[in-house]
Specification:
single chain, Beta Polymerase, domain 2, 4 helices, 5 strands
Length: 147
């Protein structure tokens, strides 16, 4: 776990922290991450219902970023605050019916949930691995992809 923390200024030299400070920081990260578990479950269940109404095939998954990855990211982005990290929890749906199914699920999401931000990668996807539509909610993010 020591490799996630770098000295101020981004040097490879380890910063010196006492064990109590480090333990407290890790506890804060673990507690913060655990606060995403219930909202993620609820959003995933809701997304599964929306997809089930629009598609014959329901493929919905969820993920919660692991604690070491959160700590590594905070170490890489020295000015980032934990509360600024937008990818701690997320769920995704794969919609085999293409654009009409994506549009139907998006319509249901917007009707039922408050969407904070939308990123639409459909017109110019950067790579095949990137989901073309990302919606950011207060507690989690949802990715929708058509095959």
């Amino acid at each position: 776990m020591r490799d996630w923390w770098r000295a101020p200024g981004g040097s490879e030299e380890e910063a010196s922290f006492d064990e109590e400070e480090l333990t407290e920081a890790v506890t804060i990260v673990v507690d913060y991450r655990s606060g995403f578990q219930d909202p993620l479950k609820k959003v995933t269940i809701g997304l599964r219902q929306f997809v089930g109404r629009e598609s014959s095939e329901v493929t919905v998954g969820q993920r919660l970023k692991r604690n070491p990855q959160i700590l590594n990211k905070l170490g890489r982005f020295g000015s980032m605050r934990l509360t600024q990290m937008e990818d701690i929890a997320g769920c995704r749906a794969i919609l085999p019916g293409g654009a009409p199914e994506v549009a139907g699920v998006l319509k249901r999401i917007r009707r039922n949930w408050d969407v904070i931000r939308t990123d639409d990668y459909c017109p110019t996807p950067r790579t095949l691995a990137i989901e073309p539509y990302t919606l950011l909610f207060a507690a989690t993010a949802i990715w929708l992809r058509s095959n």
